[in-house]
What we know:
By secondary structure, the protein is mainly beta. It is elongated. The protein starts with a helix and ends in a 9-residue tail after the last helix. The protein has a 45-stranded antiparallel sheet that branches. Helices cover 10% and strands 59% of the residues. A hairpin with a 2-residue loop joins β21 and β22.
Amino acid sequence: MPAWILPLLAAFALLSASPAHARALVARMASVSTPVATLQGVQVRLDWPADAEVGELRITAQRADAPDLGQHFAALSWRCPLRRDGQGGWACAGELRQGRGAPLRLELALPPGRVSAALSGAGGSRLALRRDDAAPDLFAIDITRVPVAWAEALARRAWPGVRLGDGRLGGHLELRVPDAAPMRLTGELALDGGAFDSADGTQAGAGLGARLGIDWLAAEAGPQLAIDGELLGGELLFGSGYFVLPATPVPVRLRAHGVADGWALDAFLARDPGVLEVQGRADLDGAGVRALALSLRSAEAARLPERYLSGWLGQAGLTGLALTGGFDADVEIIDGALAGFALRARGLDVAAPDGRFRFQGLDGDVRLVSEGRVDSELRWQSAAIGAIPFGPARLPWRSSDGELHLREGVGIAILDGRLDIPALRLRPPGSKGPLLVEAALGVESLDMATLAPALGLPAFPGTLSGHIPSARYVGDRLDFEGGVVARAFDGEVRVSSLAMERPFGVAPTLLADIALDGLDLQALTGVLEVGGISGRLHGRIDGLRLVDWEPAAFDAELHTEPRRGVRQRISQRAVQDISSVGDASFTASLQGQLLALFDDFGYRRIGISCRLANGVCTMAGLQPRGSGFVIVEGAGLPRLDIVGYNRRVDWKTLVERVVAAGSGEVSPVFD
Length: 671
């Protein structure tokens, strides 16, 4: 369907073709110009039989252009019965066509001192224009249920490539086309169910409602636009930002002017009462936002994630993030890079979905500057990462050269111990590269009896201490230098090569190498409830890879080493559990029935390994034996060896066996 203004202006341009008392009149014009439109290849034909009450008027134009309105058409034609109106004027109504498009109905009335026209289409759409001789440069335009798509050409003057879809427009406009001044369009519009999208699909809207006052000036230096009004619901997409507007009115204001390569938004404002107020200014070019000064104010942030943050949160894997409390934020972007930022929190609570992290009672401010130096301080009352709680904290910041640093070291209470952050540096994404976070970390005397259950492990005694001289987060990856040492079960667990991918996103992945040194097996097996084994456990878990906290790959080897004064014994229950978990059987120097007379057995060595890949654990032991591998090499009388035969075990099946062993739901297999 053609756009709406140009065909009416074409009719006004041809008023000179008023009928005379001839039977036929034909006029051909190479060009007809008005202050708004130019028509080329124009032909006017009037057929009026002698003594007839009605004649037939036909007007065609090969091309019509209205550059200020962004409209260009070819093959326009209008045919109508022309008659006198009984008041000294004329009237004509008939079909208007553009090429092979669907016809519209154009009604033209020429009473003395006035010209009026109306264009009608399907669904009750109607666009009416009126001009009085007393004000020849003023066109009054009344709009009723006009399809939004009719305004696409005009919209592309402000936004090249935009495509308008569903929706209806109504309202009243005034178009002024003075001889010595630029064209100006003013008035009020109401939008119902509007939709649009950009050519690349990165911007879109649907179900939009609005009441807007507009003022468009086609100045020679560039168009000027002013909008005041209210948004009345709908959905908007701008890049990664997805906004669900409330049905209650959201007042908006915009002042903008066109520049050589885009638009300068001199001032804009939107206010969702009690939820969010946004105001600022911006410079836009073909590549996006070149400069931005933005202020955000939220008295109560609870509705922000659902209404305005869901797009960015979904991209970060934080769909379902909960906010309560208030905050103010100011953002400055220069040449596409972050130049300044200020956040002021007022009793703000932040909780990630699935309990991934939370901060309660955030107060204070964080300020970032690209020039000069500024200090700020942010505090929280409590926090948690997963099930690991943190005590209150105070973060004293200093900013210079577009970066944030801690002014002094920070200590935070955690699990009856302490987390120390002697240094922390944060560089926002920009011309220097992506987001970068660097820190030095230390933990001292964390209670393993509390930490282990928080990590989904059985509770066991001990403490965790260690120092990480450098932790570096960049490119959605967190790498640690140094290591962490846990003192547990009268031995040590050393963690090195620690790294995380997507630590705050979907399917976080942890990478690490783990070394075990001299763990007391009696205490360890007591915690795991897999029977009793005395001795000292050593081993390694190399290339550990946890995806969403579930094991995906590792190369593990565990074995015992003798120590002076430490007995090496294995209980009946442990024999049964190991044989079940390792899909093994055991051989003994006595008949199986006699073994039940013994509570435990001596052993020389225990060893087992598992290389996990693609959900399958490739298993081995101390040494081969026939088609199997030795897991337990017995010692003394009665001598008992445990031999495994299945070298490839499904990982989920293996885990189920471990769980069954811990619950005592196993029975021995004798060979």
